[in-house]
From TrEMBL:
The keyword Oxidoreductase applies. PANTHER family: ACYL-COA DEHYDROGENASE (PTHR43884), ISOVALERYL-COA DEHYDROGENASE, MITOCHONDRIAL-RELATED (PTHR43884:SF12). The lineage of its organism: Bacteria, Pseudomonadati, Pseudomonadota, Alphaproteobacteria, Rhodospirillales. It comes from Thalassobaculum litoreum DSM 18839. This is Acyl-CoA dehydrogenase. Residues 234-382 form the Acyl-CoA dehydrogenase/oxidase C-terminal domain. The keyword DNA repair does not apply.
């Protein structure tokens, strides 16, 4: 009985939060998304509303000022936001991966210092792993952090880093011992604020506009030893990979959002657009497209839900998160192309949202571990979980 009541209270809390998110999206995001994206403009007013809603603390524990949401509720928020404008979700998603690294691996002092400011959105950021010569193979990074008095001197370049222009700080993966074997033992994660020794430039890209992606150069940048996450060198790769499960569920949820938005706009359009004297929804070829798009979106949603529930139970879920990420992001790519075909020339037009989904969706197959890497992770887990 007590368990059922707890569940009912959680369901009610989730319904209230999702309702608030829906109202925010309809009032503050949908009306401006098209123009801001066309101008590649960072959505300052939307970010202020996101602070009020508590989105920057969505998954941060309540004891540190966050909302303490489950992965299941969080993924539903991400799906909803991405169905309207995916870039808005990136502004709090990457930030929360940084926060999660501190919450899971940081010292108590670090949690008390940083997490309340992350939760309020007073300090915002993301994660800086990728370098010009290392993305999938993170152990190949070259950024170094050399001991200097009561801190480190950091040198190197990070690229394609979300929230790096508008954000205040990043969780940066560095080599504290470049000679270490195996290589991951020489890797550490540290919070680096922007300032002296850090320069950043904005990168141009196909889609995912509005949110800033940047290249950062660290030139003898001094970082206090207190900013080393967990206070111990050599654990950086493990700390960041631990957080990527939630990151993958979140990218998968974005995929569901785009796949669903493409479906909904296609169903609407297919009922309005007429050819040969009837709505195109009455042509069997179009019906097949809609059926396939709906099945893809729904299967993706179920995989995300399964992975999020496993995560919330505290289970190891790289297999489930990998499957969700792989399937849902491919569903987004598939549905965005099908939506474009179904809309004919209007799908190719800047006036409609379809071309934006078509430009945004492929990023999902690259970020948070490419889909090739997801297949490798899934297969390794399949083998590990099945004794020969
Ligand atoms: C808009 C945008 C935002 C981003 N935001 C961030 C961010 O906030 N923080 C961050 O750190 N990074 C970010 N990235 C970078 C992203 O995480 C990397 O692009 C991604 O990890 C892939 O790395 P890569 O581009 O270096 O490709 P590579 O690692 O060079 O891979 C190239 C190709 O080879 C394939 N490949 C690699 N290894 C294998 C293998 N063993 N087997 C089979 N195929 C393989 C890959 O799947 C890919 O198809 C962002 C990228 C973009 C475009």
């Amino acid at each position: 009985m007590a368990v059922a009541e707890d569940q009912a209270a959680l369901d009610e809390q989730e319904a209230l939060i999702l309702d608030a998110v829906d109202r925010f999206l309809e009032r503050d995001v949908r009306p401006v998304a098209h123009d801001l994206e066309a101008r590649d403009e960072w959505p300052a007013k939307i970010v202020e509303k996101m602070k009020d809603l508590g989105l920057f603390g969505a998954t941060i524990g309540e004891e540190y000022g966050g909302l303490g949401l489950s992965a299941a509720t969080y993924s539903k928020i991400v799906e909803r936001v991405s169905a309207v404008w995916m870039s808005v979700s990136g502004i709090f998603n990457s930030h929360l991966i940084m926060a999660q690294a501190v919450e899971r691996a940081g010292t108590e002092e670090q949690k008390r210092k940083w997490l309340p400011k992350f939760a309020s959105g007073e300090l915002r950021g993301g994660i800086a792993l990728t370098e010009p010569d290392a993305g999938t193979d993170l152990q190949g990074i070259r950024t170094t952090a050399r001991k200097d008095g009561n801190g480190y001197r950091v040198n190197g370049t990070k690229t394609w880093i979300s929230n790096s222009v508008q954000g205040h700080l990043l969780a940066v993966l560095v080599k504290t011992d470049p000679q270490a074997e195996p290589r991951h033992r020489g890797m550490s994660l540290m919070l680096i604020e922007k300032g002296e020794g850090v320069s950043v430039s904005k990168l141009e890209k196909l889609g995912y506009k509005g949110i800033d992606s940047g290249e950062l150069v660290y030139d003898d940048c001094f970082v206090p030893a207190d900013n080393l996450i967990g206070g111990e060198e050599g654990r950086g790769l493990q700390q960041i990979l631990g957080g990527l499960e939630l990151g993958r569920i979140n990218v998968a949820a974005r995929g569901v959002g785009i796949a669903r938005a493409c479906l909904e706009e296609s169903v609407r359009y297919a009922q309005q657009r007429k050819t040969f004297g009837k709505p195109i929804a009455d042509h069997q070829a179009i019906q097949f497209k809609l059926a396939d798009m709906a099945t893809q979106a729904e299967a993706a949603r179920l995989l995300v839900e399964q992975a999020a529930k496993a995560y919330d139970r505290g289970e190891r879920c790289d297999l489930e998160a990998g499957m969700a990420k792989l399937f849902a992001t491919e569903a987004a790519v598939h549905n965005s192309l099908e939506a474009m075909r179904l809309h004919g020339a209007y799908g190719y037009s800047k006036e409609f949202n379809i071309e934006r989904y078509y430009r945004d969706a492929p990023l999902l197959a690259i970020g948070e571990g490419t889909n090739e890497l997801q297949r490798i992770i899934i297969a390794k887990q399949l083998v590990a979980r099945s004794p020969a």
